[in-house]
Every structure is written in C-alpha cells, then in structure tokens.
C-alpha cells in the first residue's frame, strides 16, 4: 500500500479539512481528494463523512486509524535502521501538563545520556485522551492521574507516585495561611483546569456539594493562566503542589489548608502490543525512578 495515502488519511482526520490537509502536506487539493478516493477504492469502504463544516471518520475510518498509525510508525522505524544519527528509537509519552512540565524534562535528560540514547516525544493530554492515544497506537507510554474521589471507572495501570494538591490564593487574600472547610471555600470564586482534568472535576463536584449547586467555578485551558489569575486576586484554585512551590516560596502566591484534598495517584500505562520494544521498558523504569526520587511513591493517598 502506498504510504502517501495513509499520511493523507491521517492528516485529513487531524485537520478535518481537505484545504488544510493540502496546506499541511504541500499538495494540491485535488491530490488530497485523489488520495482519499484511491484509499477508499482500495479498501472498498467509505472512510470519511463529508459534512459542511468538516470531515469526520466513518466507523470504517475509525477502525483504520490505529492501523494506519502503526503502519507508518513501522515504516519510519525501518528507515532508521541504517542511520547511526537517528539516535535509536523514539518513545512517545502522553501525560498531563503538570507532569510534562515538571517531571518529563528530567526523564529526557537522563535518557539522552544513556547508551544508546533514547529520544522521547511528549504530548500533553488528560486521562481520557491519553488512554485513547494508547489504543490508537499514537503513544507508547501514558502517565495519567487517577483520583480516589473520581466517580468514573478506575484506570488500570501501575502506580508510580502521587501529586499532592494544594489550595492557592493571593498573599493578600483573607484566607491565606488559614485552615478552612469546604463550605467556607465554596463562598469564593474558583478557577480550575478545563473539564476532563480528573482532580479539577473532583474539586468542582465537592464545591458544588458544599455550595448546594451554587459554586462559582471558571475553567481554564492551562495552569499558567490559573496561577496568573490567582496571583492577581481574582479567586482561588486547587493545583498540584509541585506547580506552585516556587511561587509560594517567593511570596507570589499563598496557600490555604483544606481538609480532605484528593491526592491523585500517578499511573503508568504502557501500550499493549506485540511490537513494543525493550526501549519502552527503559523509559518506564526511568519514570519510576524519577517519582521514587521525588518521594511521590511514598506519599499517602487521602
């Protein structure tokens, strides 16, 4: 099978647009159309529904998606066999933004110093998307948060640590440095990460219960925006302690002691496949060591 057809298929799935796919791949739009038509004819099924706003995968297209990704990955790996500059296998890690920013840089440094060196690519995502990426074959290793309070299905994986949470506020806030209950906290505006962040969803639910459905919660797409708004005195938030340690130490943020904060477990989940290479085990072991060194694996789960 012509791998160009598969690359065009994957690009169209990502962009949702024949025009955007043509721009991304530097093709004429007619070439993109021809590639998709050729692939559909080859397989004997329709792969996309053409809607006015975008293209969407059909059931057959969703079935092809992980297969196409795996096929292209195998081709890329084969092409690197004779290239000494390729630096070995690349392991694709998907994890929450907190872990991407505060744990994985150390992993990358360690792995590059090993022989042979290991390259990692990192993508930020919540638990649902991370597990989906493993199933599709677009990621090799996922680190996900599993919160005890979460009402959803439990995630099956190896626990490698925990990320304790803390309530943060501006240093001038009247609750700064105090211990208060959830009913008192629920009287204030909260800024949490977007829906799908397991611990933020749990905190939002707890606030809603304490405020009898009248909690004031805003959602943000990244933790940097949350920290900036809290520092400006716009409200409170609950975030992993590691993400605000420097700001609290420097006096830019303050903390509030709250009873019963969840301490999300960090689970390591590896892609289940017969072609998973030993280098993936090397990456997993480095991740275990990083969390052990941070003391997270011994942190109590409340």
UniProtKB/TrEMBL annotation:
<keyword id="KW-0805">Transcription regulation</keyword>
<comment type="similarity">
    <text>Belongs to the LysR transcriptional regulatory family.</text>
</comment>
<dbReference type="InterPro" id="IPR000847">
    <property type="entry name" value="LysR_HTH_N"/>
</dbReference>
<dbReference type="Pfam" id="PF00126">
    <property type="entry name" value="HTH_1"/>
</dbReference>
<protein>
    <submittedName>
        <fullName>DNA-binding transcriptional LysR family regulator</fullName>
    </submittedName>
</protein>
<keyword id="KW-0238">DNA-binding</keyword>
<dbReference type="GO" id="GO:0003700">
    <property type="term" value="F:DNA-binding transcription factor activity"/>
</dbReference>
<dbReference type="GO" id="GO:0000976">
    <property type="term" value="F:transcription cis-regulatory region binding"/>
</dbReference>
<dbReference type="InterPro" id="IPR005119">
    <property type="entry name" value="LysR_subst-bd"/>
</dbReference>
<dbReference type="Pfam" id="PF03466">
    <property type="entry name" value="LysR_substrate"/>
</dbReference>
<keyword id="KW-0804">Transcription</keyword>
<feature type="domain" description="HTH lysR-type">
    <location>
        <begin position="1"/>
        <end position="58"/>
    </location>
</feature>
<dbReference type="InterPro" id="IPR036388">
    <property type="entry name" value="WH-like_DNA-bd_sf"/>
</dbReference>
<dbReference type="InterPro" id="IPR036390">
    <property type="entry name" value="WH_DNA-bd_sf"/>
</dbReference>
